[in-house]
Write a structure and sequence with these properties.
about 425 residues; alpha/beta; binds guanosine-5'-diphosphate; binds 6-O-phosphoryl inosine monophosphate; binds magnesium ion
């Protein structure tokens, strides 16, 4: 049975890129199936750091087919930039890239709409999007009348379609911006620019749904690379402070076209603590020197926007929920090294709301805002762990922390990461 999935179980940036890169060698295909250039996945190989937004993290491994499937919202300029950057560095295997002709395309109006709509109108707190046009492109996809899929760029009707959309968007955008602040878009230059992008990407574009279905039916090994994290899932996350796709495990089939029966293993990726970028509730947030300690040691600044990430203790109520939601079989605990040096480490094991203790992750954002985290405190460890290569080599208190995390989440730990490099990984065999 061929399918493995890597899903972030928090608010993104759990180090999914590192895990995908590590697992790529055991697979024939690596598939991005949702999100877009809001993602920033880091892969470190031989002291070289690669930041990938749209290219699957398998792109650095020869012999693997990398697929951007239909559920991704595609910024063609960004894909071309990433391909050019890899070519300049003499890295990657772009000849193995396949991009779905069904993927929806991001246009300049989506960026303008993203800036205008970033406010969550219910209470004024900004969603704090990455500004990459993600929400507006998904909105047009669902709305249908103003959407363009990659395959449309190769049709003779595209010029007329872009003219029609630009006319409508110029009217709606002018109304969204204060007078004089919005520069009308020019259909003919956008058409020309996107025709150039289409020509450049032509060798990669195909029907990836058919490609992946055939691969799955032939028993080829597929690795699905989730973007964002399950708490940012549009249906099951901390709505409206979410992204616009199904970033938990529930999105794999819809985004890739591969039925669930071909997916036999889901690996949940968990940071050893919590981070969040942008707005929205974060029960275990530490707005204090400990939070700053985590930010400094974890270099917690956004890969895409460089915004400082909000930091806090591990929240097991949230991660237990997202493990169940994503059908997680085992977890990978990442950035364990960041916790070294603390006198004590805390795990949020329950929430208190209206005087009652609960393990349920609330469905309404206002309730997530109101919960009080209940903490279990464990002794910390002073030793650096970045050179540890086995579970037994970790300090006893770090081992105890991991055992407790696994027990509370209710899933075995398959891997522990103690640094960004491929080598800084501890594989835990099933016992
Ligand atoms: P992703 O979006 O889930 O792929 O994660 P990001 O790439 O946005 O953020 C993870 C960051 O942590 C990257 O800079 C990685 O190089 C880095 N990283 C990955 N694993 C480890 C680890 O075990 N320890 C430390 N200190 N950094 C790590
Ligand atoms: P990776 O794949 C962390 C967050 C944004 C914002 C919200 C909505 O690297 O883990 P969007 O631009 O998607 O409309 O923004 O989602 N967000 C991420 N946070 N990691 C990501 O991706 C993210 N992608 C989006 O900060 O709060
Ligand atoms: Mg990231």
């Amino acid at each position: 049975m061929p399918g493995t999935c890597v899903i972030g179980l928090q608010w993104g940036d759990e180090a999914k890129g590192k895990i995908v890169d590590l697992l790529t060698r055991e697979h024939d295909f690596v598939v991005r199936y949702q999100g877009g250039a809001n993602a920033g996945h880091t892969v470190v190989v031989d002291n070289q750091t690669y930041k990938l937004s749209l290219l699957p993290s398998g792109i650095l491994t020869p012999g693997v087919t990398c697929v951007i499937a239909s559920g991704v919202v595609l910024n063609p300029a960004r894909v071309i930039e990433e391909l050019d950057e890899l070519a300049q560095r003499g890295a990657g295997n772009p000849e193995n890239l396949r991009i779905s002709d069904r993927a929806h395309v991001i246009f300049p109006w989506h960026f303008a709409e993203d800036r205008a709509f970033d406010k969550n109108t219910s209470d004024g707190e900004n969603i704090g999007t990455t500004g990459r046009g993600i929400g507006p492109c998904y909105r047009d996809k669902v709305g249908r009348s103003h959407a363009v899929r990659l395959g449309d760029l190769y049709r003779s009707s595209i010029r007329q379609r872009i003219e029609h959309i630009v006319e409508a968007k110029n009217r709606s955008l002018a109304a969204l911006y204060p007078a004089g602040e919005f520069q009308p878009l020019d259909a003919s230059s956008i058409h020309k620019q996107y025709a150039d992008y289409a020509e450049r990407l032509r060798p990669h574009v195909c029907d990836t749904t058919e490609l992946l279905l055939s691969a799955a039916e032939d028993g080829r090994r597929l690795l699905f690379e989730g973007a964002q994290g399950a708490l940012l899932d549009v249906d099951h996350g901390t709505y409206p402070f979410v992204t616009s796709s199904n970033s938990s495990g529930v999105g794999i089939s819809s985004g890739s076209g591969v039925p669930a029966r071909f997916i036999n293993r889901v690996l949940g990726v968990v940071k050893a603590y919590s981070t969040r970028v942008g707005g929205g509730p974060f029960p275990t947030e530490l707005d204090n020197p400990t939070g700053q300690y985590l930010r400094d040691r974890g270099n917690e600044y956004g890969t895409v926007t460089r915004r400082p990430r909000r930091c806090g203790w591990l929240d097991v109520v949230a991660v237990r929920y997202t493990s169940r939601l994503s059908g997680v079989d085992a977890i990978a605990v990442m950035l364990l090294d960041v916790l070294s040096g603390l006198d004590e480490v805390k795990i949020c094991t329950a929430y208190e709301i209206d005087g009652k203790r609960t393990m349920r992750f609330p469905s309404h954002v206002d309730d997530v805002r109101r919960v009080q985290p209940v903490y279990e405190t464990l002794p910390g460890w002073k030793e650096e762990v970045t050179t540890c290569r086995s579970f037994e080599a970790l300090p006893p208190n770090a081992q105890a922390y991991l055992r407790r995390v696994s027990e509370l989440i209710g899933r075995p730990i398959q891997m522990v990461s103690v640094g960004p490099d491929r080598e800084q990984s501890i594989l835990i065999s099933k016992s």
